[in-house]
Design goal:
Number of strands: 36
Oligomer: single chain
Structural class: alpha/beta
Low-confidence stretches: none
Number of helices: 14
Mean pLDDT: 85
Distance between the termini: 46 Å
Helix content: 10-25%
Strand content: 25-35%
Radius of gyration: 43 Å
Shape: elongated
């Protein structure tokens, strides 16, 4: 219960202050002139002015409020190392029990730092603020953090906490912990395909004498590319070749340190995005025809393609007497293109090309060798392929997937996607292909073949092969047995998806990863991690998924669209995830490439010591070298600058209360006010009458 005085003026403030001034002047004159009854008259004037201010006596009925202490428990992945989990639970149980024995203290608990696949690092202060959001600062008695000390959202100073109470850190782990980690010094984000990039790293050891060595393995996309001993603490550079576009996942893994806390951070990950400088394509058109510009327009519209196009307008055997100096044609640089610089191209396209004596036979041997070494050839065939001068009748017959019979099928037909084609990335989901007949225009000519090899992904009338794909050595070959795709490009009968088909086809030939028919991928969408298996087979094998902390699980994939199998899990850890089905391996990184949670895993009181000391609290270990947990005494302290001792920690007990009721008694209202005023006037009159 508390008493007070309140005012509710009957007139404006300036009137009251004017009255006070007049009363003070009159009282001063009375006292200076020593007028009889001056003191009584001054009191009477004061009462009259006070009546204008309308004072009231107040009484407050208050109930005391409990002080609030918060226990923040670190549940981050680093708390699972060693015996920290058991230490944490033992400290939590003992601490909460001791706090609850203090009268007038409310104890709250909050767990924080759990791996969620999005937050990088341990954020205990964020959780502390959220738990105290509904508590006024004057009720907060203090906070206790049970953690390994590796906290990543420590405020710059105690003022940012939002309360004036002690913060105590109880550190789990042991003082003699060892650990080895790989630290990235410099790593590129992008690299040109076919070129090398430099990655700089350093191996660091904690808890052991300096000067040791470590064996380091460097892998790219799961394949070992280098292995070497390095000096601990020394900066090391390694050259990494970028073989393909898209993410190139580079792992740098150091050998384990004897007795170390965990090998999780012995590995650092770099994701280098491979970018092609330019995709160089050589297009050779055997003769002008209606669909010649279809390929040219497609390739010229792609800014990533550097196109070299030759059309043979005048074969060498043509002799019409025209002087050479009057010809506007240029010579076909066969030797430069097909011998000296053939490996500069990622794709060679023969568009209705027939043997015309332009290319010597030896150059076709070069082309076949170029394919086996990793190049790509596309043959867009027409009547030329069925003729006696067919490109088949060259050394390219070793790599082409179908032999012409010498006949043509010339009647209207719809190009149809085969069952394998529905699974293949080149033709899967091609717009209009799911209808029967397909929702695109007809073609009118097809080259008949025999002994077809490879994969037929589109077919013509009587199930005859129309588009075949095959692999030869390290390279790829595509054969389109009709030259009527230009009807789609011209919009005949509504046209067809020529751009989509030809773009996918050319990118598959140039070995773009997203169009591989046998592929295992890991795709991250928010907190979801999807395992995708692209396969031409009828079933997909189970996949073993390994999390950044080393936990494994086996996933059974569910069938999606043709050729695609998927399974989705929650990505509850930051770092490198790995999936394998025994044949293929996929890697992806969730969040930062090298999470702060695993950057430094040895326990330490040093990170939280500065802010704990600013609040009068302490940061100390609760376990000795053997792992035995010893918790200090917990004491209630009313007011102090420090809340710690050798064997105790304190909480700041508050005197906060809440008002339950208020009583108000006006001093100049009713009989009491009338008596005071009349009494003062009567006293003045009585003194004057003496």
């Amino acid at each position: 219960m508390g008493f007070g005085l309140a005012f509710s003026p009957l007139v404006p403030d300036w009137v009251i202050w004017t009255a006070v001034a007049i009363a003070a002047v009159i009282a001063l004159l009375l006292l200076v002139t020593r007028t009889r009854g001056a003191a009584i008259r001054a009191i009477a004037l004061a009462l009259l002015v006070a009546a204008l201010a309308n004072p009231s006596l107040t009484r407050e009925d208050r109930d005391p409020l409990t002080s609030v202490a918060v226990v923040v428990v670190d549940k981050s992945p680093s708390q699972n190392f060693g015996d920290r989990t058991s230490q944490t639970e033992a400290a939590r149980e003992a601490l909460v029990a001791r706090l609850k024995r203090i009268p007038g203290l409310e104890v709250r608990e909050v767990e924080a730092g759990q791996a969620d696949g999005e937050t990088d690092g341990t954020r205990l202060f964020h959780a502390l603020s959220a738990r105290l959001a509904d508590v006024p600062p004057e009720r907060i008695a203090g906070a206790f953090m049970i953690t390994d000390g590796r906290v990543h959202d420590v405020p710059a100073d105690a003022g940012a906490l939002g309360f004036a109470a002690p913060l105590h850190a109880l550190i789990t782990g042991r003082p003699n912990e060892r650990d080895r980690r790989v630290v990235l010094v410099a790593a590129p984000r992008f690299g040109i395909v076919g070129h090398a990039q430099t990655v700089t790293f350093r191996v660091e050891d904690s808890g052991v004498p300096a000067g040791g060595t470590a064996q380091v393995k460097i892998s790219r996309d799961g394949e070992l590319v280098d292995q070497r001993p390095v000096r601990v603490g020394a900066v090391t550079e390694v050259q990494i070749q970028i073989p393909h576009s898209g993410p190139n996942i580079v792992e740098i893994e150091a050998s384990p340190l004897e007795g170390e806390l965990t090998p999780v951070n012995n590995r650092a990950v770099v994701s280098i995005e491979g970018v092609r400088d330019k995709l160089r394509v050589l297009l050779v058109s055997g003769e002008p025809h209606s669909g010649e510009r279809t390929w040219r327009n497609l390739l010229k519209s792609d800014p990533n393609v550097d196109l070299v196009h030759f059309t043979i307008l005048r074969p060498p055997e043509k002799q019409d007497g025209t002087p050479i100096n009057e010809l506007s044609l240029i010579a076909f640089p066969t030797r430069e293109l097909f011998q000296q610089r053939i490996n500069d191209f990622q794709l060679i396209i023969f568009d209705r090309y027939a043997r015309q004596g332009v290319l010597p036979i030896i150059y076709f041997d070069n082309i076949a060798r170029y394919v086996r070494d990793g190049g790509a050839v596309m043959v867009a065939a027409g009547p030329d392929y069925a003729s006696q001068t067919s490109i088949w009748r060259t050394p390219l017959d070793q790599i082409l997937p179908a032999e012409p019979t010498g006949k043509m099928t010339e009647r209207p037909f719809h190009a149809r996607i085969t069952d394998p084609g529905r699974r293949h990335p080149v033709t899967r989901g091609l717009e209009g292909g799911a209808d029967d007949p397909p929702h695109w225009s007809r073609w009118f000519r097809l080259v008949d073949t025999k002994s077809a090899n490879g994969t037929t992904i589109m077919q013509g009338p009587d199930d005859k092969p129309l588009l075949l794909l095959s692999r030869e050595g390290k390279g790829r070959v595509a054969l389109m047995l009709s030259d009527h795709i230009w009807l789609w490009a011209r919009g005949y009968e509504g046209g067809g998806p020529h751009l989509d088909l030809l773009r996918r086809l050319s990118h598959w030939l140039m070995q773009q990863p997203e169009l591989e028919e046998e592929a295992l991928r890991l795709v991250v969408h928010g907190k979801d991690l999807t395992v995708e298996r692209q396969t031409m087979a009828d079933t997909a094998a189970p996949v073993t998924l390994t999390s950044p902390s080393g936990t494994t699980r086996t996933l059974t994939l569910d069938a999606g669209e043709p050729g695609m199998w998927r399974s989705t899990v929650t990505a509850n850890e930051l770092g490198l995830w790995r999936a394998t089905d025994g044949k293929l391996t996929a890697l992806t990184n969730v969040g930062p490439a090298n999470p702060r949670e695993f950057a430094q895993v040895t326990s330490t009181p040093d990170v939280l010591a500065p802010i704990a000391n600013q609040t009068g609290g302490d940061s100390r270990r609760i376990a000795d070298a053997s792992g035995t947990v010893e918790l200090p005494r917990i004491l209630a302290v009313r007011s102090s600058d420090t809340y710690k001792g050798d064997d105790w920690l304190g909480v700041k007990m508050r005197d906060a209360s809440v008002v339950r009721g208020i009583g108000v008694l006006p001093m100049f209202a009713g009989v009491l006010g009338l008596l005071l005023l009349i009494g003062s006037l009567a006293a003045t009159w009585a003194r004057e009458g003496r």
